[in-house]
Amino acid sequence: MADEVFYLVLNMSLASCVVIAVLLLLRLLKPLPRRFFYPLWALAFFRLTVPFAPAAGWSLFNFTGDLVKRLISMNTYTHDSLPLSISENLLVMNMLGAAESYSPLAYKTESLRQTFITGAVVWAIIAAAALISVFLLYWLTHRELKKAVLLKGNIYCSDMLLSPVLAGVFRPRIILPPGLDPDTPEGQMILAHENVHRKRLDNLWRTLAVIIACIHWFNPLVWVMLREFFSDLELSCDEAVFRQNSFSGDDRRKYASTILQFAEDKKFLISSAFGRYRIKVRIMKVLNYKRMTVIGAVASAIFLLALALVLITNPTL
After folding, report:
1. Within a 10 A sphere around the Cβ of 149, how many other Cβ atoms?
2. pLDDT in tens, the chain (317 residues)
3. How many angstroms separate the CA atoms of 154 and 240, rounded?
4. Which domain holds residue 296?
């Protein structure tokens, strides 16, 4: 059973490499705002967690040559237990070419079977260790942050912090370091930033991204994806703050100075901290921020929708 799960995970990981590579290339398009690009990482997360996807003629995987060895219908795995209308167009891509048949999984040779059984054990042990480490770190950190002193509303203060942080996944709290007054202009900018994270449930997506990376620990592109996802999360949050507030040039410079001031604290893996990730890039983006025109926004939305349809679908049989 474990080797069957491992086989699916490997196939999902290989499929995600294509999606991640495309997204990394598209990040080089400077005119594309991060608030439009940030949601596209969900396509990579989808490929890394869901083995099935609908087939379509416009799928990018129709043009990847022999990368896809075989397509298996969802009916094969469900034994026709689902309505035909649901499962007839859902396929899983087999990129390994090591199986002779599926459900139950039968390998082409005995050596392949032994290889995948051994690989499954190694994968499961390391993935479990990584997940336990992440959740232990999360628990220890938030146990300490529970000692934070309430200032007002949902805003707390803790002397264990060097920079502001949004802590918690389902009921997040804004926790400030000592000496930072939330009523100052800098404090208001920080609160605006952290409230964007809170409203978008960014800590939840951050947590899911870390869990997915632990499951696919063997794939180096997944770790690259995680780093760039965290970066886009912060850049898109900065853009959202500017879009929702009428900041002058002086305000943007003050915002950039505040980012630089809190650039030291980097010890939170799951919680969103204000002074983190690509400080130089964030400051340049802040200082050169320009509102997108309506035409530009519509064109970007159409382009990204088309991209999503290309990347989320499987090739046709």
Report:
1. 11
2. 777 889 889 999 999 999 999 999 888 876 677 777 888 999 999 999 998 888 888 888 888 877 887 888 777 776 655 555 555 678 888 888 777 777 777 888 888 888 888 999 999 999 999 999 999 988 888 788 888 889 888 899 988 877 888 888 888 899 988 888 888 888 888 898 899 999 999 999 999 999 999 999 999 999 999 999 998 888 888 888 888 777 776 777 887 777 777 765 545 555 555 655 566 667 666 666 666 677 777 877 888 888 889 999 988 86
3. 20
4. 2-312
Q: What does the chain come to in residues?
A: 317
Distances in whole angstroms, Cα of residue 69 to Cα of each of 43, 95, 246: 22, 5, 53
Count of the separate structural domains present in the chain: 1
Half-sphere exposure of 285 (CA within 13 A, CB side): 24
Amino acid letter, 148 = A
User: Within a domain: residue 317?
Assistant: no
The answer to whether 237 and 37 are in contact (CB under 8 A) is: no
Strand residues in 55-111 grouped as ranges (E) = 70-73, 90-94, 99-101, 106-107
Structural domain includes residue 73: yes
Cα–Cα separations (whole angstroms), residue 62 to 59, 92, 222, 314: 6, 14, 23, 8
> Residue holding tokens 């519509």?
298
Beta-bridged to residue 53, according to DSSP, are 91
With beta carbons less than 8 A apart as the criterion, state whether 76 and 102 touch: yes
Coil vs helix vs strand at 52: strand
Q: What angle do CA 27, 67, 120 make, to 5 degrees?
A: 95
Helix or strand run (H / E) with residue 242 = helix 220-244
Confirm whether 233 is domain-assigned.
yes
For residue 181, give the DSSP letter: -
Looking at the domain assignment, is residue 61 inside a domain?
yes
For the chain, the distance separating the N- and C-terminal CA atoms, rounded to the nearest angstrom, is 27
Q: In the block, which residue shows the tokens 């690259």?
A: 224
Q: What is the dihedral of CA 305, 310, 314, 317, to 10 degrees?
A: 120
